[in-house]
Amino acid sequence: MTEGTAEPVLFTEPGARWRAVAYGPVLCLVILVLELVTGGPVHWFALAFCAVLVAAFVALQVYAARTHVSVELTPSALRQGTETLPLAAIDEVLPERDEDSWDDEEWESARALGELTGVPRRRKGIGLRLREGGMVQAWARDHRGLRAALTGALAEQAGSADRPGTDTMAEPDEHEDGGHG
User: Fold this and answer.
1) Tens digits of per-residue pLDDT, 150-170?
2) Does one domain contain both 64 and 126?
3) Torsion sign, CA atoms 112, 113, 117, 119
4) Bridge-partner residues for 79, per DSSP?
5) Which residues, other chains included, contact 138 with Cβ-Cβ below 8 Å and sequence gap of 6+?
6) What is the 3-state secondary structure (H, E, C) of the chain?
7) pTM of the predicted model, to two decimals?
8) Are residues 139 and 82 in the same domain?
9) Domain-located, residue 2
10) Domain check: are 89 and 133 in the same one?
């Protein structure tokens, strides 16, 4: 079987980086070098055990973050964690929250995309109005970058829908007889 051509990625956030797994073992190595240089007792087993334990625990966290908190935008879909939303289902990217306003925006209480119960920590929500009428929250650390990429992708999709020979979603006619309304 051959794989289809991959779509270009317009925006991506990995959720976590694998380099974080090395931080614990590197710290244990620094402690080992300090013990060797100072001439005191060297705790070989304890340092090796701690290095492996910390690396394993952090690897589990990185794997979970890359699965559940990663973001990827392509010209046809937005993936947030394990949930993928086709761009054709998005009607509009809603305006950013006014920081000076005391009132919450309507989209801030909408369901967050992905399987998590809300917008993940250290991420900001982006309101999306769906074509079916509901609202959801997309999210990212670089929420302005995702907002710009998403707005551009939706504009490109709308532009390609206006060109002849492409699928277009016809606006429903309120009056079948062509009356005024």
Assistant:
1) 999 999 887 776 655 544 444
2) no
3) negative
4) 72, 84
5) 71, 78, 80, 85, 113, 125, 126, 128, 146, 150
6) CCCCCCCCCCEEECCCCHHHHHHHHHHHHHHHHHHHHHCCCCCHHHHHHHHHHHHHHHHHHHHHHHHHCCEEECCCEEEECCEEEEHHHEEEECCCCCCCCCCCCHHHHCEECCCCCCCCCCCEEEEEEECCCCEEEEEECCHHHHHHHHHHHHHHHHHHHHCCCCCCCCCCCCCCCCCCC
7) 0.73
8) yes
9) no
10) yes
The residue segments making up the domain with residue 40 are 15-68
Residue corresponding to tokens 């087993």: 45
d(C-alpha 172, C-alpha 169), whole Å: 9
Contact 150, 73 (CB under 8 A): yes
d(CA 87, CA 152): 11
Residues of the chain with pLDDT under 50: 1-2, 166-181
Pair of tokens at residue 156:
């490109």
